[in-house]
Amino acid sequence: MDALPAIAQAPLDEASELPLYRQLYQRITQFIASGSLDATTPLPTEKQLCEAFGLSRATVRRCFQDLVDEGRVVRRR
To answer: H helices of 1-77, where?
Structure first.
């Protein structure tokens, strides 16, 4: 299953007080919690998320780092 269409279905809210990396983090954790993303489904790459949302790589990396730090995902090459 390709997770990108599900995650990028709606744009992030640039006018929100919540930083974009945190909005992306919440979106990904919601999909994990709902079972839409399981342990065998890889997350989209940093580049794919940057292109889908128009985000900088630093923003996506910050989101991924928070996910890794909290043990929600494992980063692999």
So the answer is: 4-7, 20-34, 46-53, 57-69
**Rounded-to-integer distance, Cα 43 and Cα 31, Å:** 11
- What backbone phi and psi angles, to 5 degrees, belong to 3? -80, -20
pTM of the model: 0.91
CA dist 4 → 15, 16, 17, 22, 38 (Å)? 23, 22, 24, 17, 14
Q: Give the phi and the psi of residue 5 in degrees, each rounded to 5.
A: -60, -40
Task: Quote the tokens at residue 53.
Answer: 């949302």
Asked if 26 contacts 12 with a C-beta cutoff of 8 angstroms, the reply is no
Predicted confidence (pLDDT) per residue in 9-28, tens digit: 999 999 999 999 999 999 99
Structure-token match 């128009």, residue found? 54
What is the DSSP code (8-state) at residue 39? Answer: T
